[in-house]
Design brief:
single chain; about 400 residues; alpha/beta; Aspartate Aminotransferase, domain 1; Aspartate Aminotransferase, domain 2; 2 domains; 7-stranded mixed β-sheet; 14 helices; 13 strands; about 40% helix
Length: about 400
């Protein structure tokens, strides 16, 4: 009997970590520090919540089916703002709205892969990308990263076969927080263009990039849409996690194939969330700039306050956007350390084993910290607790 698709992959890591929490007893009087999930825990700003209430009451269309590829006004706004941010040639016909960025990735690979086809994923990888490939019958090919957590173009070139259909990059990266330099992203584009494979570039965390300059110049390249598919999420920018609104930018030909997938899976993105994302893009620029400043400040707090952990053998591999990525100093594998941290230090975070192939030695000594929901005081408390953990 053939194995069902869902049985070919692992259980959702965040749900697994929640089971650890349910099974653990925190130290007396100690509140949990949860750095396991990369999602805002606060609701959208009040002005946006008021607009969502108005939409629900006054916009009949918000309760009906809409276009499969998304609200036309939102597609236009994305195209316009992307043109300002990146330059080049980006029109609404190259934009689709999806039910979150994960759906955008799933739709993309559905248009690219046949049974057994391959996608290169830098390791550590975003686990939902690996899960999606497993469940579609594709193969995730591990692309090693260096000490700076950056993938190597030459290594990628050596891994491309006649079954390779794409290379998928995430920048700023989940899980490491590392920002890929524009030249590196450009070099991967050149490789993909030369070898006839697609570059999938997930920029979910682009709003929290440390540079105000364009993170790459790919949209200015001739025929960019024959090679590039860019992915984006509104969950982090406007705290619309529960509304599930994402986007993708690709060729009109690619989006015609994507439309088949989306019409089958969700029919259309949730309308209220789309109206909310549009209002946010048009009205919350200054607020989002403040959010970016705060997230960047929290990243600096991690880097500046890391000394007590370094003194105890921890190594900071990367820190940016929502994440820090660490090497732990203990003999036990990271999944065991992560489970012990819940009951002994009141910290819930994910081990590197959840972001790497099974048995990967690097994953066994690495940990991901999703620090974006900790303020400066919370980061200080996190460092203190982790430094006091004996392993």
């Amino acid at each position: 009997m053939a194995t069902p698709r869902t049985a070919t992959t692992f259980a959702p890591p965040v749900m697994e970590a929640r089971r650890w929490l349910a099974e653990a007893s925190l130290p007396a009087g100690m509140e949990l520090i949860n750095v396991s999930q990369a999602a805002p825990v606060d609701p959208p700003p009040e002005a946006l919540r008021q607009e969502i209430a108005r939409i629900a009451l006054e916009e009949p269309q918000a309760h009906l089916y809409g276009p499969v590829l998304g609200l036309p006004a939102l597609r236009e706004e994305i195209a316009a703002q992307w043109l300002t941010a990146y330059g080049g040639e980006i029109g609404a016909s190259r934009v689709a709205v999806t039910s979150g960025c994960n759906e955008a990735f799933c739709a993309t690979i559905a248009t690219l892969l046949a049974e057994g086809d391959e996608v290169l994923l830098p390791v550590p990888w975003y686990f939902n990308h690996k899960m999606a490939l497993d469940m579609i019958g594709g193969r995730a090919v591990a692309l090693p990263t260096d000490d700076q957590m950056l993938p190597d173009v030459a290594a990628a070139a050596s891994l491309i076969t006649d079954r390779t259909r794409a290379i998928a990059l995430v920048s700023p990266n989940n899980p490491t927080g590392v920002e890929y330099p524009p030249a590196l992203i450009g070099a991967f584009f050149d490789l993909c263009q030369a070898r006839g494979v697609t570059l999938i570039l997930d920029e979910t965390y682009r709003d929290f990039h440390s540079s105000s300059a364009a993170p790459h110049d790919l949209f200015t390249r001739p025929d960019w849409d024959q090679t590039l598919v860019q992915l984006y999420s509104f969950s982090k920018a406007y705290r619309l996690t529960g509304h599930r609104v994402g986007a993708m930018v690709a060729s009109p030909k690619r989006l015609a194939e994507v439309e088949k997938y989306l019409d089958t899976v969700t029919i259309c993105p949730a309308q209220i969330g789309q109206f909310a994302a549009l209002w946010g893009m048009q009205n919350l620029g200054q607020w989002l700039a403040g959010e970016r400043d705060e997230i960047l400040a929290r990243g600096r707090a991690i880097r500046d306050g890391f000394a007590p952990l370094a003194d105890r053998g921890w190594l900071l591999r990367g820190a940016g956007a929502y994440f820090a990525y660490l090497d732990h100093p203990f003999d036990a594998p990271s999944d065991q350390i992560a489970q012990r941290l819940v009951g002994e230090a009141g910290i819930l975070m994910l081990p590197g084993t959840m972001f790497t192939p099974e048995g990967d030695a690097d994953g066994q000594r690495q940990m991901r910290v999703a620090f974006a929901n900790l303020d400066a005081a919370g980061i200080g408390q996190f460092v203190e607790r982790l430094a006091g953990f004996g392993g």
